[in-house]
Amino acid sequence: MGKDEKTPITVNDKEYFIEDMTDEQVTCINHIKDLDRKLSSARFNVDQLSVGRDAFVNMLAQSLESEVISDEDYDEPTAGD
Questions:
Q1: pLDDT digit string (tens) for 51-69?
Q2: pLDDT tens-digit profile of 27-46?
């Protein structure tokens, strides 16, 4: 960008230029950008946690099912044995 070009930003369908904003307004923009980044990271973490939880639920279910199958395969001695 050249020295005379300004950085546009759209708020509520209206275009503004960052260079024309007050320090307080620029601080708000910086907070919004940082919060957007944190929200994106939090969504990523929630996705990871959900997939991890699902994996452990599946591992538990498979483990419990294999115990049931093992118990069914086991022949208990009868009174006549």
A1: 999 999 999 999 999 887 7
A2: 999 999 999 999 999 999 99
pTM of the model: 0.67
What is the token pair recorded at 16? 């503004």
Which of 6, 10, 7 has the alpha carbon at shortest distance from 32?
10
Residue type, 60: L
Query: In the chain, where are the structural domains located?
Result: 39-71
Token representation of residue 22: 């007050």
Q: Counting every residue, how long is the chain?
A: 81
Q: Output the CA–CA distances (angstroms, integers) from residue 37 to 5, 46, 48, 50, 69, in the order listed.
A: 26, 14, 17, 20, 48
For residue 70, the model assigns a pLDDT of: 72
Q: Return the structure tokens found at 74.
A: 């086991």
CB atoms closer than 10 angstroms to residue 4: 5
